[in-house]
Specification:
The two termini are about 20 Å apart. The mean pLDDT is about 80. The protein is globular. It is about 35% helix and about 25% strand. The chain is of the alpha+beta class.
Length: about 110
Amino acid sequence: VDVVDKALRQFGATAALSVRLAADGGALEVVGATEAWGDLLADAGASAYADRPAALPLDLRHPLAEAVRTGLPVYCASRAAIEAEYPTLAPGLARHNVQALAAVPARHLG
């Protein structure tokens, strides 16, 4: 997805994910992602379906869900900070050598 590729270049990141609020407002649907995010979402409890995008429940303790719920960015400057705040992400962080994260909410036409 073009948005994910642009985010990687703009921020010098090694992994990126783009989500949108599901029509029912209860989950985030993945619209673009780098490979590492599939593991990280599965570790966090996201569900995958053959007929629609992977979904991350909005009430889940996850930086993306928190950013969307509050409308504020979530920054974790170290792996230790991520693990302390979001322990379900720990296995994937180690597998993909994630050192920091930023979950930044954005609104499109609204």
